[in-house]
Structure formats: C-alpha cells, structure tokens
Design brief:
This protein has helices spanning about 15-25, 75-85, and strands spanning about 5-10, 30, 40-45, 50-55, 65-70, 90-95, 100-105, 110-115. By secondary structure, the protein is an alpha/beta fold. It comes from Luteococcus peritonei.
C-alpha cells in the first residue's frame, strides 16, 4: 500500500489573506466556508486541502518544497503577468521560448513555479 496526499500546509502570518490571494490564483480550489484566525484553507479536487497556519516567525529561507502551476486557459507568460498583477513577485525568471519556467513568490514569500501549458491543454498535437 502507498500513501496519498491529504493536504498541503503553509506557514503564514495572515492565513485569511493567503487564502484570499490563492483563491484568485487557483480555479480548482475554493475557500472553505469557515476561516479562522489561526488556520484557514481552500478545498480542491478530491477533497484535498491547501491550508495556511498562523506562525509568529517570518519566512527566512527558500522553500524546500513548492507548488508548480500549469496554466490552463492562457500561456505561461500571460499567467506570470496575471500573477504579478495580483501581487506575486518574480524570484527567478528561467523562461525561454517553448521551455523553462518562472519562479514567483506569493505575498508572504512562499515560492511557486509557473510552467508551460501541457501540449494537450495548449491544443498542440504531437503525432
């Protein structure tokens, strides 16, 4: 028997603000109806939970684990611009034509990557 993901948790100074921000980023996760001051989250496909837990200390070093996002209805570069407009910051721009990714950070500094759309999602046929 193997394991399956149950949830993803992130430390946060303001869990509710993080949920509000990530709800604008992800269309397959929705904010939970009840949000607490110490813990708030979003529920996604298969009931998976993305939670933000209040901690007193600020983020100080690079994440050891991060999310990778794959845009569905826009290009990688359009999605990067959308996320920057929402308040993300560019950490490392590793984009090249038809390859690479951008490393961004959410408003509290948690890094995540924006990848290219998959060939299927982009409508590209590879026969």
């Amino acid at each position: 028997m193997t394991s399956r993901t149950a949830n993803f948790c992130f430390d946060a100074a303001d869990p509710k603000a993080q949920v509000a921000w990530w709800a604008q980023v992800l269309d397959d996760f929705v904010p939970d109806e009840e949000q607490g001051d110490e813990e708030a989250g979003l529920t996604g496909p298969g009931g998976r939970w993305m939670g933000f837990l209040r901690v007193p200390e600020p983020k100080t070093v690079k994440n050891r684990m991060h999310l990778c996002l794959r845009p569905v209805d826009r290009s990688r570069d359009e999605e990067v611009e959308r996320l920057l407009a929402l308040g993300a910051t560019m950490v490392d721009d590793l984009r090249q034509p038809d390859q690479g990714w951008a490393v961004l950070a959410d408003p509290e500094g948690n890094e995540f990557c924006v990848l290219l759309r998959s060939a299927d999602e982009a409508g590209i046929r590879r026969d």
